Amino acid sequence: MGIEERHAMGKLTAASVRGIKKPGKYYDLHGLILRVAPGGSRQWVWRGTVRGRRRDIGMGAVAYTTLAEARDIAYQYRKLARAGIDPKSRRANDCAPTFAEATEQVIEAYRPGWKDTGRSEENWRSSLRRYVYPALGSTPVDEITTADLVRVLLPIWHTKAETARKLKTRLGVVLRWSIAAGYRTDDPAGPALAVALPRHTTPAKHLASLPHDQVGPTLEKLDTLPRAWPPTVACLRFLAATAARSGEARFATWDEVDL
User: Fold this and answer.
1) CA–CA dist 61, 59 (Å, integer)
2) What is the pTM of this model?
């Protein structure tokens, strides 16, 4: 068995959680425990008494659940236990997942289809952790309303317009997944949200482009440029011939090309 270190109740902080690496159990409020395994994995665990029996219930990896979120879940578990309800059974059979839990399931489902898996996954997690999880991370997906989404998005809707648009899309994906999974029947990220949020007034900035009659002469001129890198020239010719997006051309693999 590993070494068990007991900390005073409520003494864990976000900073201390990040720094704890030594294997053991670190205790906090409401029966919350940070368990560090000898191999380095770190997990939140709730410990409490349910109908006279001690229960330990896993609450997920520390990497995906903040201290504040874990405390909130532990508090809810303690309330259920005091009412004689097994939190594990209630969670498995009756309760919809929290928004953070549903997000993890969506990421798992989407991961195989992402080209740049690590970057896409990190973009999802970092944006939701920063702007959504503080308000809605521990909220069951069946309790989230359009008003909740407006409260999350409106503060950054104009100041960080691109981030807000991406967040709106990701919120919609998670909530529509919740409908498909049977946790709710309506979509709070649907038309009502579009009406509730003001229109973005920032004009679109289009990239510079060549008139079609200048494409040929420009491609011919590429061969005369002394500093032109051959792969770049080849990529530009490929773009002109296929009308593909620049990212599709730059990151294409041979198996995507029909020769």
Assistant:
1) 7
2) 0.47
